[in-house]
Amino acid sequence: xxxxxxxxxxxxxxxxxxxxxxxxxxxxxxxxxxxxxxxxxxxxxxxxxxxxxxxxxxxxxxxxxxxxxxxxxxxxxxxxxxxxxxxxxxxxxxxxxxxxxxxxxxxxxxxxxxxxxxxxxxxxxxxxxxxxxxxxxxxxxxxxxxxxxxxxxxxxxxxxxxxxxxxxxxxxxxxxxxxxxxxxxxxxxxxxxxxxxxxxxxxxxxxxxxxxxxxxxxxxxxxxxxxxxxxxxxxxxxxxxxxxxxxxxxxxxxxxxxxxxxxxxxxxxxxxxxxxxxxxxxxxxxxxxxxxxxxxxxxxxxxxxxxxxxxxxxxxxxxxxxxxxxxxxxxxxxxxxxxxxxxxxxxxxxxxxxxxxxxxxxxxxxxxxxxxxxxxxxxxxxxxxxxxxxxxx
Length: 393
Ligand SMILES: *[C@@H]1O[C@H](CO)[C@@H](O)[C@H](O)[C@H]1NC(C)=O
Description:
The protein has 393 residues and is an alpha+beta fold. It is built from seven helices and eleven strands. Residues 1-24 and 379-393 have low confidence and may be disordered.
């Protein structure tokens, strides 16, 4: 009893410790020389914080941008962009740990979607600039001489890898694409951008629609067709189930596909070619399958065999390509790990079910065959069991 209470108290303590440390805000942050800033804000993505003091008389903005939970092999950047909450046009301060093991800061004006990340002057003066890296926190300190037009504008921040002293392209996770918003240095208002937020939402919708339709419903529909038709009593129910499953998968899948095309056209300069190309191929193949349904020859038509071969090969290709493309999508979106694990779990479950059903149907088919050949010992090769693999509906 005594130990139970101790355990409960200990876990409460631990929980509150984690809760308070994860609720850490810019207010609790300190600087190496105990310098103070008039205002601060928790930026809504990438564990970043902005502290500043605006001196109206001098026309200077003194800022400290802090990126926590990073490493010495990543760069951190923050900047202002009067043309909107986006990368192009950003007047950026960048910092990384250089080959001497020292935090180095420089300014760069980002004019293209594939910036060189080389030092270049900004549209305003930066009389003082430095950076510090400790405890996996990068902090950029700068004094910027800005005119009034820069006081209420958009801010953009970002982080990415550094290898051999070269600053690499930032990742394309939802957080890395949502790290932009507005800022007002006079009122202290700062926030995420609603357009970045809605894009993150659309990316999630895209992921869910496509995973459910192409990744789960379609394999389920194929399993229905392959394993239900062996039972004479399930004919023609399996056919309607299969058609219902695949047409709803197709409808949801096309909606998901359209969100993908829209995302692609809304993100100029960001192309995920393999994912996009496989997506387009999938749409064409799946549409072909819908026509296959309409152009299906009769069961005993002489072309039915060719139709079956075509329908099955396109069907299995669609399923394999869909699964590949969903994993490509996971790589791009980088949702929390458990989503990918859940999808892998569902795939394993479907695989196990399919394997068991495969074994079971072979057992049923062989037993039927045996029964028949016992009844008609001279027609072993002539008679087919119901649902023989060679007989297609
Ligand atoms: C690293 O950065 C420090 C501070 O900016 C600078 O003095 C030093 O020269 C840099 N080292 C290299 C190798 O660039």
